[in-house]
Amino acid sequence: MRKQYDFSAGKRGAVIASPGKTRITIMLDDDVIEHFRAKAEAQGIGYQTMINAVLRSALQETRGKGKANEDRPLTVAVLRKVLREELHAS
Q: Cβ contacts of residue 32 below 8 Å, gap of 6+?
């Protein structure tokens, strides 16, 4: 049966690409991941989806503060601040 299949032109990765999303590798502290996994499981959503929502909220908040902040990139310091605020809020 294996001789019938030819995967020589096959590509690795997701079968269907997610439009508007990019796969990355990111290092987060264990306690941060545990927090989001527990919170996401309680709400019945994925923890990565929840982390994305928190980051998007911080981004929109930053953009809402004025034109000067709009061009400023999301830095590691800002990301840490947002994650600490979310951990403290729950």
A: 83, 87
